[in-house]
Amino acid sequence: MRTFILHTSSLAAMMAAIAVPAAAQETQIPTVVVEADEKAAPVYRFGDPVDSGTTKIDRGSVESRAPGSGDVNEVLKALPTVQFSSRQGRATRTELQDLRPENLSISGGSIYENLFVIDGVGVNSRLDVSGTNPQHYIDGNTAASAQTVWVDSNLVESLTLRDSNVSARYSQFTGGVLEIATRRPGRRFGAETYYGETSPGLAEFRVSDRVRDAITGPLPQEPDYEKHRYGLTIDMPFGDRVRTLLAYNLSDVTVTNYRGPNWLKYGDYGLTSRNETVMLKAEADLGANLLLTSQFVWSPYESRSSHANGIDNYVTLNGGGFTGKMGLEGRLGVGRWELQLSHAFSNNDRDSDHPGTVNVNTGGGSGIDWCSGSSCSLGGPGILEQSQSETGLEGRWAQPLLGGALSAGFQLAYIEGEKGQPYSAAYRHVSTKDYPVIPNEINPNTVCADPAEEAAGTCVTGRYALAQRNDATAFHTKRDLTSTGLWAEYETDLRGFMVRAGLRYDYETFLGNHNLAPRLSISRDLPWNLNLTVGANRYYGRSFLGYALREDYPGNRIYQRRPTIVGTQRIWSNTWYLTNHSETAGYSNANLATPYSDELTAVLTGRVPVIGGDFRLKGITRNGEDQFASSRATSQVYDRETGGTSTRQIYTITNDGSTRYKGLSLEYVRQLGDHHAITFSANVSHTSSSNISYFDLADDTEYDQTLVYYQGEIRPLLEVTADNQLADYAAPLMLNADWGANWFGGRLRTNVNAHWRDGFERIEDTGVNIMVGGVRYDVFDTVKFSSSFSANLSASLELARTSWGTALLDVRVNNLFNTVLEQDYSSTSQPYQMGRNTWISLKYRY
């Protein structure tokens, strides 16, 4: 909390700079604005030919196509070069509770290697956000996200996706760029509020054929949950020169969870997640050619977790954070300039209601009846502290020059990552052949010398004492870096060819590499209203602090104690002695190159004869090199505090990773009169990657010299799997369709969108072994993955339109045709997937 106050107080002055001139303006009487009938438009617009990898989605499309959850990333499903996880439809309790935005793969890039920008402020994590176990003793924050801050779709004015041919202005990505522009303050007073919800009563659940074949008895109980979404936005101008916007959004979910078999007497329990967004924006016209902007976005995320086999083990996982910025933009002669100072902070702490566990045997008169097992535990994992902050200064200049257009800019940033934990401990019995728990630790003659131990449950007079303590040693690690970026590009018409040539320089103190990234795009108009654009570009990624923050992980220390025997009494004091010391696996950095991706792209755009509409045919090839991956483990000898030596494993981050992507997409958009618009897209691609997580070994390292049995032969594993498609975020064929329509003068607006993901084959381990020549080999064969189809419907109906505003009923139906989204899903403990499910909302606009 103290860290949050320090960061937020440093941003308060940004808003105050505009609030002062606002007070001097005379408030005007609000004017009610009633919406007129708007034309239906395709879901997105193509960028300029020379900017062939850019796609723009405006506010109307976001409102019509965002799901009821408010996740704006989901709108990008209409785009052929954006891939989502095939696991999206699972209705596990963990998935239902997750309110974070969906992860994205853009043009074959890793989900960790995109550039997310909200109103010009980067919101990208350099920390390890790959954790999946919220109870893990030291890596357990599953609320972290590659996108550190996000906002509700109701606050979004537009989305701009750049999947290829990206301007030199952008860097620190090897996937794609997603720019999210939030609503600007209005020049007239206005307000909007809404409420939406969904629950199992508005949903159906499906199971795959594979699960039905595996379950012989009745299916488990269907999921139980409640989700809500609220919002309020107010536009408040002060005179003609100052405009402000205040917005608040809240999404929450409660999911019913079930205790383990030895803890059933405690009944079901609900776990919640909660995501809030507070946004303050202000604009002031300081002159005819000078605009001052300021904004603050606070978007904290909290998710509760509790292990089913225990009590008092609740933890709160934190995510999200805040951004703030102050900017100036104006004109000077023929030039346009912008200057922006920003700060972003993300909080990935884990709070624990009861740090440290206590595990007690239930037999021998211990008096423990917390559960029905042979031992019971209370308490949870310790507190974790993890955060990232970034303070940046950015400037841009653009002007006409020699018949063309010159633009240039700089970016300076200071980034700091922290990780640590306070002290906590886990207590348990010592149980050996020579020292049985009964009667040594469970004994009616037990006497606790420290009364505080009874409250903690580590010693209870007349019943038991716990003689072993496992310490989670306190530590704190901080790593920082400075990032510098300079760029320039020039666009001109050269003998009928529109040429945009750019060059970007980046330097980060953490890796210490000077990187030059050329960008080139050449566009040419052709006969028959066609245009051909080709591009050649290099993109550099950014530093990763995950290994550096693991360098100071503390070792494990186990302490024990013994009682003092006085007559028949066994007196236990709070005095412990070290019995075991071991070091955990170590992580270290090395002299690394900056990951990069080389791209070639060709795009053909134009009008479609006869039927009308516009099309875009785009081909992209990417080769990613020097990607981050783990080394093989090496052994390191260390001195044990209890005497002697031992060894531990050391992992070093390397540049052994690589990616390959080839994709061909076709898009068609058409407006049909004033009230209908259609969009179709298809993508054929092949994506391969040597490793998924930065803590994975690259395939060339992990499988070097490994032989397997494949189709009757003993062959190298790397050769057998060389042509494998990436298993997730990489469907080889996708088809998307979208139809938007306005009815009854715009009082009813509907959208239907559909998505088909083709199945594919991979060569994988079958789980079978075979003996050949006295040697055991894993048997590899072709494994087929099923295709998937989903369709979604949204309808927004004006219930009333008066001089006092407009009331609307909004319905969002996901998986309209109630299909099984993942036929390959095989879990029998949580077998359900989301079938048809509906969000219902009411909205009021003034």
From TrEMBL:
It is found in: Cell outer membrane. The keyword Signal applies. One of its GO terms (cellular component) is cell outer membrane. Residues 1-24 form the signal peptide. Keywords: Cell outer membrane, Membrane, Receptor, Signal. It comes from the Bacteria. This is TonB-dependent receptor plug domain-containing protein. It comes from Candidatus Brevundimonas colombiensis.
